[in-house]
From TrEMBL:
The lineage of its organism: Eukaryota, Metazoa, Spiralia, Lophotrochozoa, Mollusca. PROSITE patterns: C1Q (PS50871). It holds the Pfam family C1q. This is Complement C1q-like protein 1. Keywords: Coiled coil, Signal. Residues 1-19 form the signal peptide. Residues 88-232 form the C1q domain. It comes from the Eukaryota. Gene3D superfamilies: 2.60.120.40. Residues 18-59 form a coiled coil. InterPro entries: C1q_dom (IPR001073), Tumour_necrosis_fac-like_dom (IPR008983).
Length: 232
């Protein structure tokens, strides 16, 4: 009888323990499911936060770019305004010279415009035909050369040893008996260039023949001239 009672209680204990274990396992499974659900929610929240951070960073970059462009634009506007003020103020550096007579020039020979009608600061030398700027800047040069009857030649502007512009003048043959033409043909060129102190600027003849060519100039009909002035 005692053995049976003992076995009964032992079996009941085992059954109760099994029930408790199953209940505990069930509780643990529920806890695991809750943890998984919570982890999933945390991951979704993390993704949402990452997206918000990315949007904030992108917006900051865009704002900085706009600010940078604004500063660059402001600097550009300031620079343009400065240049306009310099132009408005004027540099007062200009010259105008012309040939007093017709002369014959060889290939690569410099044309000396020997008479001045205007020269601020004495920047052009009538003795050698060279303009030398006292300051750096943007300058405009223009020259007119005249070819007499049956003459063709080229002239070029030299700045600092380099050719900066060239023009060809070729006279017609309309002068003669029964014709009213003079046979003179002027040609004009304009060059805008950046030059610096020490740059020698002058006009020279450039042609392929072995004989000199006449550069015509006459105050009663047409002059060969050389002019220049500073823009800014």
């Amino acid at each position: 009888m005692g053995i049976k009672v003992t076995l009964f209680f032992l079996i009941c204990g085992i059954i109760c323990s099994s029930a408790n274990i199953e209940e505990r396992v069930f509780d643990l499974e529920n806890e695991v499911q809750d943890q998984l659900a919570e982890n999933e929610m945390m991951q979704e929240r993390l993704k949402a936060l990452e997206l918000e951070v990315s949007e904030i960073v992108a917006q900051e970059k865009e704002d900085n770019l706009i600010k940078t462009r604004g500063v660059s634009s402001s600097n550009a506007e300031i620079g343009q305004t400065h240049q306009l003020l310099k132009r408005a103020a004027g540099s007062n550096r200009a010259f105008h010279a012309y040939r007093s007579i017709t002369s014959c020039y060889d290939d690569h020979e410099k044309i000396v415009f020997d008479t001045e009608s205007h020269d601020d600061y004495h920047v052009y030398d009538v003795r050698d035909g060279i303009f030398e700027p006292p300051v750096s800047g943007i300058f405009v040069f223009t020259w007119t050369v005249v070819a007499p009857l049956n003459t063709k030649f080229r002239t070029e502007l030299i700045i600092g040893g380099r050719m900066a512009g060239v023009i060809t003048t070729d006279s017609d043959t309309s002068s003669g008996v029964g014709n009213t033409g003079t046979g003179l043909h002027p040609a004009t060129a304009v060059v805008v260039a950046q030059i610096n102190p020490g740059d020698h600027c002058y006009i020279r003849v450039r042609h392929s023949s072995n004989t000199c060519v006449n550069v015509y100039s006459d105050s009663n009909s047409v002059r060969s001239t050389f002019s220049g002035w500073q823009l800014y």
